[in-house]
Amino acid sequence: MSSHDAEALLDPLDLTEYEERALEHLLELGRTTAPDLSEATGIPKARIYGVLDELADSGYLKVIPGRPKQYQPKPPEEILDRAVENRRQAYETDRARIEDAREEFVAAFGPLYEQASEDISPTEELFHVVDVGDPSERETRTLYAEAQQEVRVITKSFEYFDAIEPAFADAYDRDRTLRVLFLDPELLEPANRSVQREIVEYLRSTYPAVKYRFSATRLPWRGTLIDPSLEYDSGDAVLLVEEEDVPLHKRQAAVTENHSFVAGLGRYFDLTWNHDTLDTDPYDSG
Questions:
Q1: Could you count the other beta carbons within 10 Å of the beta carbon of residue 149?
Q2: What distance in Å separates the CA atoms of residue 54 and residue 123, rounded to the nearest whole number?
Q3: Rounded-to-integer distance, Cα 216 and Cα 205, Å
Q4: Predicted confidence (pLDDT) per residue in 48-90, tens digit
Q5: What confidence tens digit (pLDDT) does each residue in 170-196 have?
Q6: Quick one: pLDDT band at residue 284, thresholds 50, 70, 90?
Q7: pLDDT confidence of 13, banded at 50, 70, 90?
Q8: In CATH, what number is assigned to the domain containing residue 41?
Q9: In the record, which residues are listed under signal peptide (predicted)?
């Protein structure tokens, strides 16, 4: 294995350069001593013990007592399991710290926010924008997490599904109603059509309760909305207006918590779903 390949594989562990180098060589050498590892890796002897202590504290290696001490790596599967557990514990610690500050934070900043928001018009409150990509995907994952009843998706091919699948799967496991409105594959470019086919087949096999249809006409916008209500008492959405001449990385997505606006989006979804979709599944081999 090349050093570049090893570095790429170790990258998710979020180690320092010395820690990566030490762990890589430990996995190759097996049990060894700090002086020998220092010589093999080029890590200065003044630093090697601190590096090994950090790896041991993270649970990635065993320390065998003796004169001198020896260090043995854990099996790769155990290293990854421990990395996941370390991240989970760090998340829970951060979450608890944030929750502990909630009451005081809201009490201190709530009145300031209300005062500063008094002059904002209803139109200005309709939505705010985020960049398409990581920011819009982050907002979309939040919608899935906050959905109380249902999630509706309007998309060409659902090409970003991998980025939001954990949130999608969680909503599915919580028995939220999930509906996906795709675009007729005949209206897609061949590359998008291939992606759409893969996603549809994956949804069928992995999330059989998910309902999906194909819009017979072009979609003026794409996005995700949750819990639309004609009572205007719930509903949030992230949407992207179709702009074919604008590169995706230059577009912005609108995020709205306006329940009336989301109700309108919900009506559009229902009308398209019920009256403007293909009669048959284009990927149904039966």
A1: 12
A2: 53
A3: 24
A4: 999 999 999 999 999 998 888 899 999 999 999 999 999 999 9
A5: 999 999 999 999 999 999 999 999 999
A6: confident
A7: confident
A8: 1.10.10.10
A9: none
* The two structure tokens encoding residue 136: 């819009």
Structural domain containing residue 27? 3-77
Percent of the chain surpassing pLDDT 70: 93
Residue indicated by tokens 């072009």: 218
pLDDT at 7: 77
Judge contact between 262 and 225, C-beta under 8 A: yes
Instruction: Give Cβ neighbours of residue 65 (< 8 Å, ≥ 6 apart).
Output: none
**What Å distances lie between residue 203 and 8, 140, 188, 191, CA to CA?**
30, 18, 19, 19
Residue 146: closest CA among 165, 170, 122: 170
Cβ-contact 34, 71 below 8 angstroms:
yes
Q: Is residue 115 part of a domain?
A: no
> The CATH number of the domain where 142 resides is what?
3.30.870.10
CB 172 within 8 A of CB 209: yes
Same domain for 225 and 141? yes
Q: What pLDDT does residue 245 have?
A: 66
- Is 181 in contact with 277 (CB distance < 8 Å)? yes
Of the chain, the end-to-end C-alpha distance in Å amounts to 46
